[in-house]
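We were asked to recover a plausible sequence for a given structure. The inputs and outputs are reproduced exactly as logged, with field labels preserved.

PROBLEM: sequence recovery
POSITIONS: 370
GIVEN STRUCTURE:
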């Protein structure tokens, strides 16, 4: 009996390791529509939430057998995995593309799906309208790339103008009283539409709402680029690439040359919560944003509303975030998958969703969390 229990425990541990650590995680065999889901990487915090919600949603339907694939941030690996799934007879491809912004990579995947007559749903990481329009049974589920930036800007302005933070035409976060809030921008991936929108529109919208009472201005701690629009915003950032570890290291380097007390760094805006939390980790080492009474505090804003970020807000270490609805995205994807199980085109029954005009794209809305 003890040997049997040990054997069962080993099987459970092996299955858990396969799901969390990479490779492919295949659902139990049996009848049903074979669905293959390709994640750019399993390690992304927000996408882990989407994956968990998607697994729970799919488990409610006996019509599906689902395999999750960790592509380990390699487009070559992802493309090869997709070809293998097609060869093995998959009935639906769900793809979180690795190389977002690459027309060639996305079109190559669509071409493989079209030749095999397999429907495909891209999600989260944007692919172009041309890619989706090239195949009638292709769709995209994502967000409005600019909306998160706009909402983050709204959250920043709302916070700075709260009565407890703004009095006598002065902000308590304008440490050097120059009428500017010097911000560090922790930017996501180059070429990613969400990173572009969040970087630009967070600052632009905040300044619109601040209406000259204050102005967000790039901190000298930012690095300077020349590859984006010369708008005074888009070329000033630290390139964290969605990573908490990268953001922490970048912030430590910035703090070696710039102070949290003299006005050179007065606010942090991050394209995602992991980067925001990485910046907080570095500031904690200097006694800031610890959540303790009387400790120094720099406003920090993220995007995603991950569980750990919401807890950081509640504990007074982080200021605000923007909800990227993991459950809503998962449910939308599974609803499209049900069309395939019912022998309908992938984009059927979408009239109640926020759909782009003239292209099979659904936008899941954001919401501010403070």
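RECOVERED SEQUENCE:
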């Amino acid at each position: 009996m003890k040997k049997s229990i040990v054997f069962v425990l080993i099987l459970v541990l092996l299955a858990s390791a396969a799901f969390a650590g990479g490779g492919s995680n295949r659902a139990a065999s049996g009848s049903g529509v074979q669905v293959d889901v390709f994640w750019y990487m399993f390690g992304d915090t927000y996408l882990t939430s989407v994956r968990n919600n998607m697994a729970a949603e799919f488990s409610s339907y006996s019509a599906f057998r689902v395999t999750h694939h960790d592509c380990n941030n390699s487009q070559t690996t992802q493309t090869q995995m997709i070809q293998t799934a097609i060869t093995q007879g998959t009935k639906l491809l769900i793809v979180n593309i690795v190389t977002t912004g690459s027309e060639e990579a996305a079109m190559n995947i669509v071409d493989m799906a079209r030749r095999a007559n397999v429907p495909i749903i891209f999600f989260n990481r944007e692919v172009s309208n041309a890619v989706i329009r090239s195949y009638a049974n292709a769709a995209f589920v994502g967000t409005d790339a600019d909306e998160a930036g706009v909402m983050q800007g709204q959250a920043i302005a709302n916070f700075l103008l709260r009565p407890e933070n703004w009095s006598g035409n002065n902000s308590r976060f304008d440490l050097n009283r120059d009428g500017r809030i010097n911000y560090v921008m922790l930017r996501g991936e180059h070429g990613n539409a969400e990173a572009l929108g969040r970087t630009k529109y967070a600052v632009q919208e905040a300044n619109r709402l601040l209406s000259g009472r204050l102005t967000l201005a790039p901190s000298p701690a930012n690095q300077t680029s020349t590859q984006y629009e010369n708008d005074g915003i888009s070329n000033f950032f630290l390139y964290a690439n969605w990573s908490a570890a990268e953001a922490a290291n970048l912030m430590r380097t910035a703090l070696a040359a710039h102070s949290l007390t003299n006005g050179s760094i007065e606010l942090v805006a991050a394209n995602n919560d992991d980067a925001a939390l990485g910046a907080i980790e570095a500031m904690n080492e200097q006694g800031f944003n610890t959540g303790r009474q009387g400790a120094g505090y720099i406003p920090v804003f993220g995007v995603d509303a991950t569980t750990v970020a919401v807890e950081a807000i509640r504990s007074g270490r982080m200021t605000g975030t923007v909800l990227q609805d993991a459950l809503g995205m998962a449910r939308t994807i599974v609803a499209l998958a049900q069309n395939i199980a019912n022998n309908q085109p992938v984009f059927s029954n979408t009239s109640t969703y926020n759909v782009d005009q003239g292209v099979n794209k659904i936008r899941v809305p954001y919401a501010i969390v403070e």
